[in-house]
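---------- Forwarded message ----------

FYI, see the Polar amino acid transport system permease protein record below. Original note from H. follows.
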Amino acid sequence: MSADPSLAPPAVARSEPDPLAAGTVVKLRHPWRWAATAVVAVLTAQVLHGLFTNEFYQWARFRHWFLQGAVIDGLLVTLQVAAWSALLGLTGGIVLALMRQSPNPLLQAVSWTYIWLFRSIPLVVLLLILFNFSALYPELSLGIPFGPGFASFRTTDLLGYMTIGVIGLSLNEAAYAAEVVRSGINSVDQGQHEAATALGLGKGRQFRRIVLPQALRAIVPAYVNQLVNLIKASSLVFYVSLLDLFGTVQSLGSTFPGDLIPLLLVATVWYVILTSVLSVLQYYVERHYARGALRTVPPTPFQRLRKLVATRSFS
């Protein structure tokens, strides 16, 4: 007696083992990345070796000059010129940007012409023109335009070397700051203006409460970057006889020609320190204003390092 095949239980299909699950994961190799890293490491080591073993750099003289009183005095002049120029340049830039945004065609034309003119003139040429300003106008007077003057002053008494340097840098800085501020204002979406208008906010309140907070997100990081250029550009005030950091180093180099290279290295290191401080400030300013644009603010380098150390400790 044979069993009915139709009553037999159905055969269970055996599943094949997943080769991906059974095998081990092989990390993707990056041979060219390792090769590039090795080349860069060798070149960096070569540069550092030449920097510290070449006697021509005279590192003993570098240490002698680095904190000398004359160098520190020049550094303070650089900081003073840069601080005043940054403040006055930003103030002028804000005024020019608002004039450029004005519906008045005369204000727009004056602002556009100023920005176009002072961005076209090399800074050293502008400083030399101001240095010779007293030859063009020996006296300046206060009074009615095109009319009599009530008081007059000798130009040489008003324009000292420090004043000429600050005015020249401020005039140049204002032209670039105006474009930074204007681009920041224009970066605010038009829908924000329309929404503020629909809420019945006045123009002044719209600017203070809606436009300015969003525009600062673009203005502040860009202007801090502009300050880095201002620090370096301040070395040009040497051409108007103002002994800033670079001017002091040049003067000492003329007196001690054998120490010219160490003195130039002193100026280089101080400029690197100043711009590095501003770069760190720029990083944290950008990170602060990114909170409104990113859901998660990226970690700082110190936070990354701490996370890496913690990961290595527990692995």
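H. also flagged this: The chain has a mean pLDDT of 85.
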